[in-house]
Structure formats: structure tokens, C-alpha cells
Write a structure and sequence with these properties.
Shape: globular
Number of strands: 12
Number of domains: 2
Helix content: under 10%
Order of helices and strands: EEEEEEEEEEEE
Number of helices: 0
Oligomer: single chain
Structural class: mainly beta
Mean pLDDT: 83
Largest sheet: 5 strands, antiparallel
Low-confidence stretches: none
Length: 159
């Protein structure tokens, strides 16, 4: 399901402070609405909300602010993107054994989901890795699906 409003995730930088926002990171595809907090894909050099429909999409980052290119040509808008950091989010772990494990890779197929199974879902995009699992009591543990995920835009990753 795609976002229909801004979402406000807790995001911090690698150093623990405010995340670094890359202003005007990439051209935005025409007729797309990017909501704050959306997971973004990069296709042929253009940024768009991730929707799992285009093979070869790479992870561009998390939208820092809303950007609407309805009726505007591709490239006129260039949204602000958070390309690296830690994000507190819910992981869709359907079918996964009890408990999530730090170091497990995290993927997405839409602008609003975090999953751990990339094999069964076509066009999933790697977002990052689980850093910490938040237990049901709010403390680090492995009994819930709330996690701190280290994410990094594809263009920042070292092979």
C-alpha cells in the first residue's frame, strides 16, 4: 500500500545527531507525489516513490520533505533526501522465524514498507540492515518487529 500522507519516523545520523539531508538529490519523475518519510527508488537517474513495479530500481534514500510533481515535467522538482542513517521502523516479518536478528538485511517493495524476505517478492530493493531489535518492553531484544535499521542509499555503498 502506498503512502497517502507524510510519516514521521525517528531518524538519526550515523554519529547520533540529526541526519544529513541531501538537498535536491535527483530529478523527480513527473506526476509523482513523494510524501515525507517515503522510501525512494532511483530509476534511470530519476527519483520516485518506491512501488516495486520497475526492475532495476535502486534505493535512493528516505524523503526529507513532501514533493509533488503533478503536472510538472520530470527534472523540474528535485526533492530533499536522507541518504544514510538509522531509522526506527516496523519490519513486516511474516513467515520469519520468531525474533529478528541484528545484521539481517532489510528490503522494501513500496514507499511505506520494510521487509526481510527479498526472495519471494519481485523487484524488492535493499534498504539496509537491522541494527537493533526493540523488544515488547521497549528495550533491546528480539521478540518484536520494531527495529532500528541502518539504511544507506545505493550510491553510497561500497561494493
Amino acid at each position: 500500500m502506498a503512502l497517502s500522507a507524510d510519516v514521521h519516523y525517528a531518524i538519526s545520523s550515523v554519529e547520533g545527531g540529526s541526519p544529513i539531508i541531501v538537498e535536491r538529490a535527483h530529478p523527480q519523475l513527473t506526476n509523482t507525489v513523494i510524501y515525507q518519510g517515503a522510501i525512494l527508488g532511483l530509476v534511470a537517474g530519476n527519483i520516485r516513490p518506491l512501488d516495486g513495479t520497475v526492475a532495476g530500481t535502486t534505493f535512493a534514500g528516505i524523503a526529507a520533505r513532501k514533493s509533488d510533481s503533478t503536472g510538472i515535467a520530470t527534472g523540474v522538482k528535485r526533492p530533499d533526501v536522507i541518504q544514510e542513517g538509522f531509522i526506527k521502523c516496523e519490519i513486516n516479518a511474516t513467515g520469519w522465524p520468531a525474533g529478528l536478528i541484528p545484521g539481517t538485511e532489510v528490503f522494501s517493495t513500496a514507499d511505506d514498507n520494510f521487509i526481510i524476505d527479498d526472495v519471494a517478492i519481485a523487484n524488492s530493493v535493499r534498504i539496509g540492515k537491522i541494527h537493533t531489535v526493540i523488544g515488547a518492553d521497549g528495550l533491546p531484544g528480539n521478540t518484536a518487529n520494531t527495529c532500528i535499521v541502518f539504511f544507506q542509499a545505493n550510491q553510497l555503498r561500497v561494493a
